Amino acid sequence: MSTNPPQIPLFINGQLVQSNTQEWRDIVNPATQEVLARVPFATADELNAAVASAAKAFTTWKKTSIGARARIFLKYQQLIRENMKELAAILTAEQGKTLADAEGDVFRGLEVVEHAAAIGNLQLGEFANNVAGGVDTYSLLQPIGVCAGITPFNFPAMIPLWMFPMAIVTGNTFVLKPSEQDPMVTMRLVELAAEAGVPPGVLNVIHGGEAVVNGICDHPVIKAVSFVGSTRVGTHVYNRATLSGKRVQCMMGAKNHAIIMPDANKEQTLNNLLGAAFGAAGQRCMAISVAIMVGDAKNWMADLVAKSKTLKVNAGVETGTDVGPLVSQSAYSRVSSLIEKGAAEAKLELDGRTVKVVGYEKGNFVGPTIFSDVKPGMTIYEQEIFGPVLCVSFAKDIDEAIAMINKNPNGNGTAIFTQSGAAARKFQEEIDIGQVGINVPIPVPVPMFSFTGSRASKLGDLGPYGKQVIAFYTQTKTVTARWFDDSSASAGVNTTISLK
């Protein structure tokens, strides 16, 4: 264990800045408990300096041409590609997910960067010629000012890349608060953004906890806040920031269900289901945590458990690892406690608490865990476990399964596995969930669409990236114009409201 770990800097006005705070947190490798670095909880003055830097930069950045902005993100996507292995290695060390999954984390964010480079086609207004006598009306999509983002531990590359590229490319400036648990890969991405040409002050980073979050929500200069994280914190952010007059989008907790129809392709379905339930150690807001087996699909339980036992639990850096450690010891304790409660409620088919990883005995490892005959009202059904735990429920038909999903308050994502077009269509029409997969277990949309979680999983009307986020990060200004020909005769004074 390092006795003098490096200190993570802030990033203000294009410079890496050492914090003056007295409050620090260790960044710990979840597979070994090695302290990798220390992250500061920034002071109020440091937050104010970051916002002031962003406000000053906005005065010139908003006037920068669309072409110039797009070229920065063309360069940025190139730099991310060139540094993919390094970024994945940093991410795995501090967060725990496998190297392959870490690359996937970076890549899904990279897709948004690529989309940002197409801003010339995204930030278009509208024009109507001669709406009245010599009058034209047109709309402009203009940036709103200083924006901020608060990101979670589970996707420390992808989710920051959901936020600041789209905010910046639309002409805004940005203050980012990454997770205090794993900010190192985020900082590397910020350094690459500066290398790509993002000017000083346009992108700033402040580290911290509750005080910094509240400072962002309250700051009078910040115009919009984007948040991804837990329902508890997201609800607090939404309420506090909207009271300050800000635009807010909050992507929050989930309890995602998959319906398994008896006609589904068995092997493909089980493979997809286990990947979605246990990948990233279940620490995904889009993880499938409840499988509803319809009719005779319940006979697949033995195969589901047997296949789960073949998954390799190990450190993310080890070849062939399927399930890495949980992010922290507190996460390990919470997941283990929920498994213990679940064992008193439902049938524990596979207990991941017994897993031992040779060479990484101090790691936060929980193996694939499966409960069967899980019903609404049980603790393991009602709470988002955020670990490698799959709850299996049974339903007599698709109608009962759909009713169960629609009764759950969350609405992030859902899926159905079937070979029936009729069943798939019925599902997509009747399910009240924002993101639907048909034989796709984690239906996170590609960047030309928007992330559309719904109900208790989302606060705010507009989602991150895609078309919706262009509306979130811009304000529409409508101009009605008439240019008079000096030689034309005056029609005199018109005291009506019409444009004739």
UniProtKB/TrEMBL annotation:
One of its GO terms (molecular function) is methylmalonate-semialdehyde dehydrogenase (acylating, NAD) activity. Keywords: NAD, Oxidoreductase. It comes from the Bacteria. It is an enzyme of class 1 (oxidoreductase). Its EC number is 1.2.1.27. Coiled coil: none annotated. Pfam families: Aldedh (PF00171). Residues 18-479 form the Aldehyde dehydrogenase domain. Belongs to the aldehyde dehydrogenase family. This is methylmalonate-semialdehyde dehydrogenase (CoA acylating). It comes from Polynucleobacter asymbioticus (strain DSM 18221 / CIP 109841 / QLW-P1DMWA-1). The lineage of its organism: Bacteria, Pseudomonadati, Pseudomonadota, Betaproteobacteria, Burkholderiales.
